[in-house]
Known about the structure:
Elements: E1 7-13, H1 15-26, E2 34-38, E3 51-58, H2 59-69, H3 73-88, H4 97-116
Parallel strand pairs: 1-3
Antiparallel strand pairs: 2-3
Helix pairs in contact: 2-3, 3-4
Amino acid sequence: MGCPDTELSILITGDDEIKALNERYRGKKEPTNVLAFPMWKGPGPDPDTGLLGDVVISADRAREESRCIGEPVQDTFYRLLIHGLLHLLGYDHEGSEMEARRMEEEQARLLSLVKEV
């Protein structure tokens, strides 16, 4: 993915903590399934720091999503982790339909690679 030797921090938490983070950093007073916090400014990761960023996943939201869509919970966690990772790499599904499609395609590609292992 073009960022070898970079560090990724992953926090798996519950709805209460992710709701507090979502409100503090995004102004949204509700839990979400995943948040991503890049450790760089600009168009991509800074290779000098070795830090990519943090991905926070709500286990509560992941279990609920898994149940609602009939997906194994492990696959839901993989999907959310990949989604957060793509945000750290500059993908954004909220900017335009084209960017959303691009992110969705890359997410599906990476998820298929994880499932092969």
